[in-house]
Amino acid sequence: YIGGRGCVVRHGYMGYTWGAQSQRQDVASACKPWFSTFLFKAVEDGRLSSVDDLVVNWEPCLNNINPSLGYKDRNITFRHMANQISCYGVRENPGTAFDYNDWQMALFWDTLFLRVYGATYSNVDATVLHPLLTDILQCQDNPTMTVFGTADRPGRVGVSVRDFARFGLLYLHQGNWNGTQIVSQAHAIMAVTSPLPNSIPRTAAQAAEMCPGARSIGSGSIPDNQTDHEGSYSWLWWTNGLNRSGQRHFPDCPLDTYGAFGHANGQRAVVVIPSLDMIISWNDTTLGSKAGNPGEAIKRVVAAILPDTPLISLSTASVDRTVDYGQNLPDDTFTVANSGIGTLQYAVQSSEPWLAVSPLTESSTGEADTITIHYSVATLPVGTRSASIQVSENGSTPSAAGNSPQTIAVAVRVVSVLPDLDLDGDTDQCDFGLFQVCLTSIAEPQITAGCEAANFNHDELIDQQDLAIFLGCLSGPGVPADRTCDDPYQ
Predict the structure, then answer these.
(1) Number of neighbours of residue 349 by Cβ within 10 angstroms
(2) How many degrees, rounded to 5, is the angle at CA 5 between CA 3 and CA 6?
(3) CB atoms within 10 A of CB 383
(4) Could you tell me which of 432, 402, 405, 404 has the C-alpha nearest to residue 419?
(5) Integer distance in angstroms from the first to the last C-alpha of the chain?
(6) Sign of torsion, CA 66 72 77 82?
(7) Distance CA 117, CA 244 (A)
């Protein structure tokens, strides 16, 4: 549907890929959350005292522009820039209007990376990006903040889809990567849960003075006013908020969906859906010509992994038990739950008369129902007996369970005492006859092939000690042996 290349990460594992995973490419405006990430790190590392520090303290040109507007740009904070409400380049006062503005983004990047971090266009990767972020994320394809070179829109991030997925996974894990807290949990949560309120209007887009030699990180329009915030813009991330008309930003997608998007309709993106433990990363797609995106693309991926029927989910796939001959087993339990949609109606049945289950029918809308297994194995002969428990569809809604039936394999091993060599439950003359054949002598200590079972004490000899064990278990024909008589040797 979207073309290009991408990947889907689920539960921390690469679940699906298409196209070249290692190809590094510009991600356009999807790079912007990388900037806010380094803003948070600057605060956490003590380079800035807070996100509300004045930018003019680092960029003196803001002292001198727009005198007719009361030198309004002196009041721009890093918070303003990281939410595109600085109003740099337009006439509104900082914090009073939203202006999606690539001139502002260039000023934000230059101030943060060249001034606060002290990097240059030439060394920003080596001194900031790699050691403080992408090396820790174990990126494979050498991400860069100068994808077009140092003379062409520095700050634009070039990254492969698999490495971009790592960045999304960092935020899904609330700033933690494999035990290392790269960004504080508080900042990581705030970044994706604090969309601008709809009370903040979109700029009127009346141009105002910018710093001498101002540059843009993308758009060449002056004034630059690319889009509204839709009640969904949070520290340069896009969330699934409500706009002024009450419409979701990503209709039919999980409410906790958020992402970073570049170019029309999100042609380049990383998407995070915490409730599904899922990351989607793509680039070089055809979404620019497909209406309703990126929400439609997200919805399609979600639909591909979410069930559209009830599903039978069992807590175990097998039960293995051992019991002494003539004894019974205590009850066991397992659970059945609906891991799909709707209501699962199911029936439970056993394949063997010595195995029973209760209840025989139940329903689940997601909760785990406990099913009890009852055994009647006291009369079973020595040996291993197999059975199965089948859980099957029984009138589910809105449709039949998509994975019916599901089966639990049950194995019960009925054991006798070691001297019961013929495995009939008693220890008698028949067993003694088999034992006598296997007795070893000092002259021939080797155990005869087939006699291994008569070596009751496991000392590589079948001798008087084994005879003593045999006599201790002797019960007579048809009389079950004392099941504890060989316990020290089991």
Answers:
(1) 15
(2) 115
(3) 12
(4) 432
(5) 63
(6) negative
(7) 38
Q: Which of 241, 244, 251 is nearest to 295 (CA)?
A: 251
Sheet holding 318-324, edge to edge: 318-324, 406-415, 383-393, 344-350, 361-364
Rounded-to-integer distance, Cα 370 and Cα 321, Å: 19
Q: What does the DSSP 8-state code read for residue 72?
A: G
Q: Residues near 35 by Cβ (< 8 Å), separated by ≥ 6?
A: 82, 105, 108, 109, 112, 155, 236
- 371, with CB counted inside 10 A (0-12, 13-18, 19+), is buried
Give the tokens for residue 408. 């639990």
**Virtual CA dihedral for 209, 148, 99, 282, nearest 10 degrees?**
180
What whole-number distance in Å separates Cα of residue 232 and Cα of residue 188?
Answer: 16
Quote the DSSP letter at residue 154: T
Check whether domain 312-415 has CATH 3.60.20.10, yes or no:
no
Helix axes 429-438, 464-473, angle to 10 degrees: 170
From the number of C-beta atoms within 10 Å of its C-beta (0-12, 13-18, 19+), residue 11 rates as exposed
The amino acid at 484: T
Query: How far apart, in Å, are the Cα atoms of 397 and each of 343, 401, 455?
Result: 5, 8, 60
The ranges of the chain annotated as CATH 2.60.40.10 are: 312-415
- Gap between the Cα atoms of 401 and 91, Å rounded: 60
Q: Where in the chain is the domain with CATH 3.40.710.10?
A: 5-305
Pairing of strands 406-415, 318-324: parallel
pTM above 0.85, yes or no: no
DSSP β-bridge partners for residue 26: 158
CATH code of 5-305, in short, is 3.40.710.10
> Residue-wise pLDDT tens for the chain (490 aa)?
899 999 999 999 999 999 999 999 999 999 999 999 999 999 999 999 999 999 999 999 999 999 999 999 999 999 999 999 999 999 999 999 999 999 999 999 999 999 999 999 999 999 999 999 999 999 999 999 999 999 999 999 999 999 999 999 999 999 999 999 999 999 999 999 999 999 999 999 999 999 999 999 999 999 999 999 999 999 999 999 999 999 999 998 999 999 999 999 999 999 999 989 999 999 999 999 998 889 999 999 998 888 889 999 999 989 999 999 999 999 999 999 998 899 999 999 999 999 999 999 999 999 999 999 999 999 999 999 999 999 999 999 999 998 999 999 999 999 999 999 998 889 999 999 999 888 876 556 677 888 888 989 888 888 889 899 999 999 999 898 888 898 888 7
Contact 224/101 with Cβ under 8 angstroms? yes
